[in-house]
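User: Predict the structure for this protein chain, please.
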Amino acid sequence: MDFPIGCRWARLLYRMESISNLWHIIIEWILQFNPNRQSRKRVDGTLTSEGETTYRLIHTEQSQKVESMIKNIVLDFGHGGIDENGRYTTAPNKMFVHANGEPAYEGVLNRQIGGHVYTCLRSHPEFNVVCTVKEDDPRDIALSQRVKVANKFDPKETIFVSIHCNASQYHNASGFELFTTKGLTKSDALAEEIANAVEHIYEDVGLRLRYDFSDGDKDKEADFYVLRKTKCPAVLLECGFFDNRKDFDLLKDPIFQGNLGSFIYTGILNYISKQ
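Assistant: Here is the predicted structure, written as structure tokens:
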């Protein structure tokens, strides 16, 4: 769902779906109107490794205007969604049925997490925020089309962030990783800022940070089409393994999705503000 009213308000509306979260919704509502703060704190929840939800105050900056040469942010939500007939448009690929019969659809998770990033970025009118495919669009569009969307903008004024979840051969891998193209490029700096912003979320719940420090930074390098063919700095995020039960329970949780989306947004802003 697209909330053009700013990141904090959209997050608040998402949480209203759960009555059990009413107490921290009330606290957040009060904090939104504190006139004595230049920055705000909000109450957020995250799942522990035991599956229980705990809440803590985390820091968030106001959506102040960011001065930067970066004007265009292209978000790419990998694979497809659920169409009007209830069909997963990437089936039978990029999905997994867990032991309890519950299906996990990567493209759906990508859209849910990416939707939070989009909402946060939309609170900055100075940015042109574009999605290769909208959050509510179930089509699994071609990789070439995704790249085409990014390449129509000046690469010096554009970044590309592709949001995915992962899977493994034996369904036992876990954690977060992110990819850039091979070699030293501006994409490395973008990846580093996003990794720095989100990593504490994974540490809090005991999920692995699947980094590669062999070249001095945290991202892994791969020859993915959407990274290789885009002309601007480009990063592909693997937010967790949807075929791993523990990862999936987090990835589908609206609170975890909101937290992760907010801090991906923070990493993007941190990169942009330095350009």
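The two ends are 31 Å apart (CA to CA).
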